[in-house]
């Protein structure tokens, strides 16, 4: 079974999560979106801290600065600087898992998290509060090609583990919003 087929069930489940659906139709409050961004910041910071610019397949993939910029914009635009948002338990669980990855396992999470932004993120960008810098990529075609170059069917189990963590994070975010 190829990677797409092997991950299709959990991919579909993640896309159908209520929080994701609310983000897709543009009904998330600025605070709910800030909570989402805080989780994304933790995840991408962990992935990128392991990369040392050697493992990420393209330099334009780095997302931490864009996420920080989005959070700062929300804080300013919606006067939310005093709204303290922490990393959720589900995100902490995912971070613990990410800390133990390397090689093909690490690449599986690059594949999962970055392709989600370059594809699905392009639809989300106009629906979220703020300008959505998280979803802006220089050389998007090159970014996609660089991720496809590290993609392989053997990463399916690890991608599904990642999807399970993402589903848990989206469920927890929904409960808080």
Number of helices: 9
Report on the biggest sheet.
none
What is the fourth-level CATH superfamily? Heme oxygenase-like
Q: How many independent structural domains? A: 1
Strand content: under 5%
Radius of gyration: 15 Å
What is the typical, i.e. mean, pLDDT? Answer: 95
- Assigned CATH architecture: Up-down Bundle
- Provide the CATH top-level class: Mainly Alpha
Low-confidence stretches: none
Globular, elongated, flat, extended or rod-shaped: what is the shape? globular
Number of strands: 0
Describe the protein in words.
This protein has one domain (28-176): Heme oxygenase-like (Heme Oxygenase, Chain A), CATH 1.20.910.10. It is 68% helix and 0% strand. The chain has 9 helices and no strands. Helix 5 (89-99) runs antiparallel to helix 9. The longest helix has 22 residues, at 30-51. The protein is globular.
Question: How would you briefly describe this protein structure?
Answer:
It contains nine helices and no strands. By secondary structure, the protein is mainly α.
Features:
Heme Oxygenase, Chain A, 177 residues, globular, mainly alpha, single chain, 9 helices, 68% helix
Question: How are the SSEs placed, and which strands pair?
Answer:
Elements: H1 3-15, H2 18-25, H3 30-51, H4 64-77, H5 89-99, H6 103-118, H7 120-124, H8 140-150, H9 156-176
Helix pairs in contact: 1-9, 3-4, 3-5, 3-9, 5-9, 6-8, 6-9
């Amino acid at each position: 079974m190829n990677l797409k087929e092997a991950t299709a069930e959990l991919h579909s489940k993640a896309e159908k999560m209520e929080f994701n659906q609310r983000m897709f139709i543009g009904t998330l409050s600025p605070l709910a979106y800030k909570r989402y961004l805080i989780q994304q910041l933790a995840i991408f910071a962990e992935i990128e801290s392991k990369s040392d610019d050697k493992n990420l397949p393209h330099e334009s993939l780095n997302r931490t600065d864009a996420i920080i910029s989005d959070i700062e914009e929300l804080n300013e635009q919606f006067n939310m600087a005093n709204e303290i948002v922490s990393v959720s338990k589900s995100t902490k669980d995912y971070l613990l898992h990410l800390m133990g990855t390397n090689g093909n396992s690490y690449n599986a999470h690059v594949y999962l998290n970055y392709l989600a932004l370059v594809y699905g993120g392009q639809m989300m960008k106009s629906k979220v509060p703020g300008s959505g810098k998280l979803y802006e990529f220089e050389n998007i075609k090159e970014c996609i090609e660089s991720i496809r170059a590290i993609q392989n069917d053997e990463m399916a189990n690890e991608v599904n583990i990642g999807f399970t963590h993402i589903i848990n994070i989206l469920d927890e975010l929904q409960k808080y919003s």
